[in-house]
């Protein structure tokens, strides 16, 4: 039970002080906990006008200002914004938008969405079906039809590619998938710039540019799921822009408000937004809390903090501090790979470094538990991968403390016995 937070520190109900290396537990708290300026922005807006929906014909000044700010920060002609309450709603919106884009141009067969194994896109039926994490696939009843999964880029597990260059293999597979489904039946591909919930998996540099080129050739849209990566997590406002995705639709949430209010934003290119406006019937889609003025006011204050305090730059520093602090762990037999991308880290634990066979998820969970109980450091395992996504206000001393705690616990990890040995 977490009851209080300041900066990168939180307290649990038993009064224990903990270092939050997960940013609110789930890659959220970009500006850290307990920020007065965000509380004041919320209070001022609630006093003025807590909420008035943008679902129908109304709007409000805060959502308009935030849409403009996002358009200014977003790459190229990504200039239009649709607000949701979070990531899953955003992904579902993006899927609908991609289909609508083609349907309004007369291509009503373009319904397939290509997603990837190891991808995480949310928990609603649409976003959940696009998710490729097996543990999360136990939907109640049939999943959404017309979603196909392809292999992700996972350089550490080169065995997936049978000795071939990973990008060559993946492009060949994608091309074969497009051929099998028929390009004329495919609306979009969706992917996270780096896979987050799948275990912080970073693609080779040429992956996204080559995927983008192939999709463009077939008239298929690209949706970047930036729910984790946007707003500084990897050092940029939008990670997809620095990774060569050139996305048509960008889904964001989490860091948009640093979790101080539930809010998501689906950004899109003008040409995607234009088809919505061009239809003879309107695109009847929205939510009670679409364009929530209080959430948008908090987001504006949050973006100010990110910019004014240089937290995008700090994200890269955090990555450097953690990389240096974690380096001794790379020598341990149970550590397969340490992946760092700004303030996001995945430490993949292996039962056998030669075969790269992963440890049982319970063992990675035992590491996270030990870090909590003995070092008062909050981390999480995603399967066999121990993940860090700290607030972007983490300082060097905190980063080094977290890293040395992790190295200490991992040095006691006994894979054969299936436990963390007592200290
Ligand atoms: N996409 C990605 C990449 C995510 O990491 C998440 C949440 N972890 C979502 C979508 C879903 O967002 P939400 O939980 O806000 O619905």
From TrEMBL:
Pfam families: Aminotran_3
UniProt keywords, alphabetically: Aminotransferase, Pyridoxal phosphate, Transferase
GO molecular function annotation: pyridoxal phosphate binding; transaminase activity
Keyword Lyase set for record: no
PROSITE patterns: AA_TRANSFER_CLASS_3
Top-level taxon in the UniProt lineage: Bacteria
Descriptive protein name: Aspartate aminotransferase family protein
Organism (species): Micromonospora deserti
């Amino acid at each position: 039970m977490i009851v209080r937070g300041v900066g990168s520190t939180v307290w649990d109900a038993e009064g224990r002080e903990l270092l939050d290396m997960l940013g609110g537990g789930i890659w959220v708290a970009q500006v850290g906990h307990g920020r007065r300026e965000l509380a004041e922005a919320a209070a001022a807006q609630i006093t003025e006008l807590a909420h008035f929906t943008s679902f129908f014909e109304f709007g409000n000044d805060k959502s308009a200002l935030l849409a403009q700010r996002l358009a200014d920060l977003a790459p190229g002609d990504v200039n239009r914004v649709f607000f949701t309450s979070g990531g899953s709603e955003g992904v579902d919106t993006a899927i609908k938008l991609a289909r609508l884009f083609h349907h309004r141009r007369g291509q009503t067969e373009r319904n397939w969405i290509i997603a990837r194994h190891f991808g995480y896109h949310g928990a609603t039926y649409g976003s959940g079906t696009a998710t490729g994490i097996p543990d999360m696939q136990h939907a109640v009843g049939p999943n959404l039809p017309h979603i196909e999964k392809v292999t992700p880029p996972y350089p550490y597990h080169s065995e997936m590619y049978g000795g071939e260059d990973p990008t060559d293999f993946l492009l060949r597979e994608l091309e074969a998938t497009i051929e099998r489904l028929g390009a004329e039946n495919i609306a979009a591909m969706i992917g996270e710039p780096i896979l987050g919930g799948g275990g912080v998996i970073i693609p080779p540099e040429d992956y996204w540019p080559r995927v983008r080129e192939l999709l463009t050739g077939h008239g298929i849209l690209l949706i970047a799921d930036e729910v984790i990566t946007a707003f500084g997590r990897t050092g940029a406002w939008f990670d997809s822009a620095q990774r060569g995705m050139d996305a048509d639709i960008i889904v964001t949430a989490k860091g948009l408000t640093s979790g101080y209010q539930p809010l998501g934003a689906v950004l899109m290119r003008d040409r995607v937004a234009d088809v919505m406006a061009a239809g003879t019937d309107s695109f009847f889609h929205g939510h009670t809390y679409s364009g929530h003025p209080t959430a948008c006011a908090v987001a504006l204050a949050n973006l100010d903090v990110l910019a004014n305090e240089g937290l995008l730059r700090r994200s890269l520093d955090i990555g450097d501090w953690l990389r240096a602090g974690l380096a001794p762990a790379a020598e341990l037999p149970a550590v397969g790979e340490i992946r760092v991308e700004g303030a996001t880290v995945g430490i993949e634990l292996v039962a056998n470094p030669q075969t790269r066979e992963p440890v049982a998820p319970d063992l990675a969970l035992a590491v996270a538990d030990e870090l909590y109980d003995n070092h008062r450091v909050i981390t999480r395992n995603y399967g066999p991968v121990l993940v860090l996504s700290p607030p972007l206000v983490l300082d060097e001393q905190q980063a080094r403390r977290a890293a040395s705690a992790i190295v200490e616990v991992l040095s006691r990890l006994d894979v054969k016995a299936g436990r963390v040995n007592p200290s």
